[in-house]
Protein 1
Amino acid sequence: MRALVVLSILSMLSAPALAGSPSVKTMPPVVVKTVPVSGATAVDSKLKEIKVTFSKDMQTKKMWSFVQASKETFPKTGAPKYKDSRTIVLPVTLQPKKTYVIWINQGKHNSFRDASGNPAVPYLLVFETR
């Protein structure tokens, strides 16, 4: 599984990103923080928004890819909105005692991109409500 993830990330990198010495500017953005935290098992079902923060400034003009793993595990959502150039907020309605699974970029759905156009590395947000 780890090799598949590494190959997936390497396939996302452009030739300029891999040429010479890598830098923050040439490497793709990554998720550095989520609210709730991925893996949380006691999230309040009254939570009204999911926040995702990236490592770099992002394209904020209606550029996002919150991707369903399945219809059953995806929350009811409103329109996403960037709080600032690195953090996007997704309004949600959650149910108690349920597992939620949300991909941040996945496969051909890779609209989360930094200011230079590099797509963010896919991130899997999984949490359970109490």
Note: The helical segments are 2-12, 15-18.
Protein 2
Amino acid sequence: MIPFVSATIDSGALRHNLAAVRARAPGARVMAVIKANAYGHGLVTVARALDAADSFAVARVDEGLGLRAAGITKPVVLLEGVFEPDQLEAAAVHGFELVVHVDAQLELLRAAPAGSQFVTWLKLDTGMNRLGFTAAAFAAAHSALSALPCVRQPVRLMTHFANADTQDEPTTALQLERFRRCVGSLPGERSLANSAALLTNPSSHGDWVRPGLLLYGVSPLPGSLGSELGLQPVMTLQSRIIALRDVAAGERVGYGGRWTAQRPTRLAIAAVGYGDGYPRSLPSGTPVLVGGQVAPLAGRVSMDMFAIDVTDLGVAPQLGTPVVLWGAGLPVERIAALAGTIPYELLCGISQRVAVASR
């Protein structure tokens, strides 16, 4: 059965992008960020394709458990850490590495069962003001963590940048200086750089880089494309034509009649909408690829479908003609900009009724 909407995941592109990351940070190991179902690409599919990464990073325990259930044995870092005794027990059983960013997690580790051993990442808040110990509290937290028998030494050290995607913004340099000043000559491996910092600030690479969006072939820098960075798109989101119709000049199309035909117009109806994760906010004129030809969206995206003006296409589409929404030949960065959002949201927003397959 041919699905109405499908997301094809290119495993070769994932491997290519990992190699591109290594080329940009040759002195660092790679902690591949595959949280949020690998940014919509499929947690296990991506983990298997990125077997050459040095470790994986997920947000929560359940994501790590999903990897272990699939037979993934590579180190897994829990970026939000654990908060309950049963989560700590699961982390011990499955060898998850823990990010520690609040006092409550220190208390949890103090009560760890005898014999437990954890690799820990102590997070310093250098200006993101989201997770992590402040500079004033960092030394005490580091001392407490270093004294725990359940913690493998030395403690590893981490921070996160707030504005690394803005190259002329001084915040990243300030955060980097705060990190260096606070951790000083403490032992332990360092991890600072996300995808954007990996590109814009080589001095932040440290021992481990944490690429996310780059691995999926997408640029984290506004106004640039992954292809310009030597990356390959991993996800191609595709639907197909389920109806063709002709409308007269002056006829309005779709909910609210937001689009009016300026001439006799041939419309194709694609079987995809915001119920699949294709944004309702996209304006008329947004490009799609109909059988490989560029054509504009006509009218408002509805839950299950939208109209495309195919009047000028050299090869007339038929029922079943494929429609590419983003991916190979149509960068997701471009579609995100038209939707007034970021590529992360589009990729993570793919709904459960989209059929996902890898190749």
Note: Residues 235-358 form a domain with the Lyase, Ornithine Decarboxylase; Chain A, domain 1 fold (CATH 2.40.37.10).
Protein 3
Amino acid sequence: MSELDPRKQTILHAIIVEYVMTAEPVGSEALVAKYPLGVRSATVRNEMAEMLDLGYLNQPHTSAGRIPSDRGYRYYVDRLVIASELEESVKTRVRTAAGEGEALMLVLRDTAKALSQLSQLLGVATTVREMEVTVKMAVLSALGPTQALFVLALSNGHIENRMVECPPGLTLDDVGLANELLKNALFGKKLRSLSKAKAPVSASHPSMDKLIETVWGTVRTVAKEHTRGKLITEGEEFLFSQPEFRNDVAAFTHLLQELSSGELLYEAVAPGEDSTPVRIGKENRNEQMHNLSVVRRSFYIGENEAGVIGLVGPTRLRYSDSLPLVTFTAKVLSEALTKYLA
């Protein structure tokens, strides 16, 4: 990412502040009139044109002002954002919500609701299940020329039996080699780490690689089934009231599809190998999330990660307010849950 000089940083910061407040493209004249930039509007226009070329700004229409791009928001979050200090009334509301219930799901729902109401965004919480379960045994047994039985034994006593299709031309020796490869790749591994892990590659032939990839798809499915927790959402009405979705039917339709699915929203928010606290627009893997940003933090029960609490909103959300709010909420939630459940 290209480093911006101080003037461009100031202009980018001002554009984001204005766009967050108005949801309207920002022009150079408006910036010069409102902010002490120390230069004329022509100079600001040139700087904005350069930032457009660098990918930090977008221009929705030929004659319109500029709006921040995902790259511009990322630069702002990483380098320019100044976290606001939470008011005592906000801290008290979060502490009260996190401390009112003794059941995990009740605490999470109350906390997500408070977070949503305080931010006027979608509050989300996810839980982690079967965090410490590992693979004790993985065996592939040939049942015929094109079928095999894959058995996966887990440390919690659960055993999965899945039928898999075998590519033609495999021998029993090939199945034996596949078992060695699977044993080395799976034995002792935490199930959670396997939900997105890549399949091992054999040094044999394409049919062997195809068999391993087929079995590995089964491993990923089992891992997701056993480690996926619950998804809680509160405050959908705040998200739907945002100008981006109220005025853009297509974006609103995509958002409805996303929220009705649940799976994609869980994947965007849930804990995993990527612990980035902020995902902006196209940094989200799924296209339906490209109009949204996710601010999230993990919470813990004792030393163990128990889930994620966060906010979902348009890329135009107030990162300077959302980041400290979510961070504080995760801290308080961890303290409350540890007290009740550890």
Note: The chain is about 50% helix and 20% strand.
